């Protein structure tokens, strides 16, 4: 099945094209046969396409995004990067959609009703759902009635029990939809599946904590292959300390800043989403590499790192309690995959329950492999986040079932 994946963000659009066998999904993630990226953040749209060892770079003025996307897609079937003879060879398009609310618990084939729901949920994800919808409409315009699938960031968490999802606020707020939705679900689900595969066990037999530590950070507690708790909440601002985002803070701080310091809502929003986290505390960067480097002689960078570790340990502990013990602890995404020191410091305080890392494996740039010592009570793994492949898999499965 030839599958196109569209991963649209507010300032960029990443696309991949996979040729997936029809009879079964491969065990190892295949390389996409074509990759493209459009950066919308400058005056001109910057397009990069990679396929068949060729690289195409173009920059074009744009008034609307549709013609640029149309041109990007045409590089699939024409020019030096051509990988198919005709657009009709595309059998499915998978879209990353950030918010699926409470109703979408799995990926779905896109219909007019699904589009209306994505639109309706834009209030909850204003930076993402509208651009996701724009991508869906663009594909309809350019490729006609090719089957499209929405893969929601929230879906994997949509079965979290109410006691973990409902906030202890006036109940009317919950009735308005204020609850823990959770995000990064596509990667949490993928990491759980990959863990089961690596350990040679059934997902139903495993209790897993997945630590998605990128610029955004979240944990998921996974039992029977389902997320039963997660640290991001109503929005991706809740939970762990992140690159630019604060994670959980006492809500009274917000009231104080509004009341006593004259902050506007927008300024508060910006402070918590952009000027907080590693960036806010260190004053140096949102990038873990730079903060770690600076921490050797800069007290604020060291403090930022110590808060990050403290909160990571605390929330891993909370997930362990939710699951009543775990079989596997997984690190994924930019920090989780690359920062051996963060992994070892996070695990250090769980030595009481028998978690033990193999220092050599932890330090050897592991990918899709175990890093725990042979006698560790819990398996610890590093899994490479493969968001586009995970979306292609979901698209394949959804279209096979429909
Ligand atoms: P992601 O959101 O998954 O792309 O992760 C991006 C973040 O990963 C960057 O902002 C860095 O903080 C972090 N990162 C990437 N490479 C490394 C590394 N070698 N060591 C520590 N952190 C890294």
Describe this structure as you would to a colleague.
The protein is of the alpha/beta class. It folds into 2 domains: 2-152, ATPase, nucleotide binding domain (Nucleotidyltransferase, domain 5, 2-Layer Sandwich); 200-382, Nucleotidyltransferase, domain 5 (2-Layer Sandwich). The chain is 38% helix and 20% strand. It is built from 15 helices and 14 strands. The strands form 2 sheets. It has an 8-stranded mixed β-sheet with strand order 5-4-3-2-1-6-8-7, with helices on both faces. α10 crosses α11 (299-323) and α11 (299-323) packs across α13 (340-348). The model has no long low-confidence stretch (mean pLDDT 96). It is an enzyme of class 2 (transferase). Keywords: ATP-binding, Cytoplasm, Kinase, Magnesium, Metal-binding, Nucleotide-binding, Transferase. It is found in: Cytoplasm.
